[in-house]
Structure formats: structure tokens, C-alpha cells
Design a protein that fits this description.
single chain; 330 residues; mainly alpha; DNA polymerase, domain 1; hpI Integrase, Chain A; 2 domains; 3-stranded antiparallel beta sheet; 14 helices; globular
Length: 330
Amino acid sequence: MTIQNAIQKYLQTVATARSKNTSDTYTFAMRAFQNVLVNNKIDPTSTPLTDLKEDAIGWFAASLKSLSPATEQLYLQAAVGFYRFLAAEALTSPNLPRIAQIVKMRSRRAGQRLPQFPREAIETVLTFLQAPSPTGAEDAELLRWLRDRAFLLTLADTGLRVHEACGLRRGDLDWNEGRALIIGKGDKQAVVRFSQRSMQALKAYLQARSPLDGASGKPLASLPLFARHDKGAGQKVKPITTATGRNIVEVRTLQALGKDSSGQITPHSFRHYFVTTVLRGSGNLKLAQELARHANISVTQRYAHISDDELDKGYHEIFEPKPTPPKDAN
């Protein structure tokens, strides 16, 4: 077996067990790994797998310095996974502890940044969307407005990731309990709670959509919660894609904040907003972790910081207290 044959078997295994995004990333990484081998006079297409040594991971790490630390870590993870695959499948016997030591010594750690997002701008967008529905609008335009309002309120008040929201079906939502059962990140089943305002927005949207849903000939529970309302969809009830979800955020942000806001808010900004809102309202880090469905509480801790505005306010309240008004002489 050649090195390239083994890499192909490895990527097939990854494609079966992991998400498409992960599979694509590993494919790019292993393509870069093969290029490094070629640069070191090892042809993956003809070199026997038994000739692949641990030193190659060091060469690979050295070749990744032009990439961001986060991308470097992802690519090294893919390459280390390849060596582990070889050992697990008994294709070769790589020295895995040595590989781990090489990666530790030669790779950069991805820096941890505090989540930054425009909280006040998001609240402005949400206030804008809760204005009365446009009068005199065509059916499709009205449906888009009602859908977009429900979609953004759902993102803000549930913490759903954009692909999770786009994948919701009507039957996923328990209207009595105000919650939905979803399959989230890592194919984990989870319960997501909905606020009263998001539920009301969803009901208004689905009520306006009822003629379209009724004519679909499909069980209501099987229909998407958020549907397309464009010429391409016609009279069919098709789910929105993540690209549509991102476009909804962009369009409604521009309407609410103006052209200078382009790119300022993304779908993930609403998830940041959700986590921070939970922390601000409860101060309970464990609660925020569970509601956001973070596997590691250290991710949630990144949100437990005070904004610059709040620091300024607290500072001035301490060092520049407002003078006490004089008591009435009478």
C-alpha cells in the first residue's frame, strides 16, 4: 500500500464518521501534507506506506506557519489523526507519543479571544423587527417579513446555531411547552427553549403561511419551520438554507441600522447575544453553559466578561458619584 492509498482510506473513514465541513477540512489538510512529502522528495503515489516516518509531522508543522494558529491546529489534528488511523488499522506502527511531542514542540497555540459583538446594535435590529408588519405588501413580501422577524427572534432567544434553526421542522416544536427537540452539534440530542415573543412571532408567521402549507399535501409536522418565499420556491414549501439565514441577517440589519452596518452582525452574533443575555440576567455560568449547549464550560467563561461601557459606568459611579440633592428647608 502506498502513502496515498492509505490517505484515501483515512479520508473515506473521516467522511463516513464526521460532518461534511470536517471532512472537507481534513481533505485540504491531507492534500497539504502530501505536498510537504513531495517537497521532501517523498512521492506519496509510489512510496510504500512503511517508509512514512514520524519526522513528516515535523515537516508539516513547519510548513503551516503562514496560516493562522487556529488553522494550523486543525491541519495538524488531521495529520495526527492519520497516524492514529494507521495504528488503529494495524497498517503501520507509528510512534504516537513521539508524534504528540513533535506537535507540542513545533506548533503554535491558537489564541483565545473574547467574543465581541454589538449588543446594542442587535437590540436595535430586534426592536425594528417588532414594529407592525408592513401594510399593503404583496403576499410574498409579507411572508418574508414575518419569517425574518420570527427567525431573528428565534436566534436571539434560543441560542440556536444558524444551521440548527434552518433545519427545524414544524413538528419539532412543542407549542404547549415552548420548546423543541433538536439534533445539535456533534449529533447530540438537545432541548431548546423558546421565549414568548419568539413563539408569538412564529405563530403569526405560520398563520399567514397556512394557505401555502395546507396546499402542500404534506403533513404539517414534516414541513420546515422557516420556508423560502421567493420565485424559485414557487408554491412549494421548501426549507431555507444557511445561506438564506445569513442573508436574512444581512438584509434586516441594513434596514434597521443603515448601510454602514454591513458585516457588523452575523447569525453567530445572535448566539453571542443569547449567552451574554443569560449571564447578565442570572449570573449563573452553569445555567448559561447548559442553555447554550457548550460541551466545555471554558467556552462559556469567555462570555463572562464586563463590557467596556459597563466598566466606564461602574468606574464613574465609584469615583464621580452624583451629588446628593439638598434637603427641602421646609
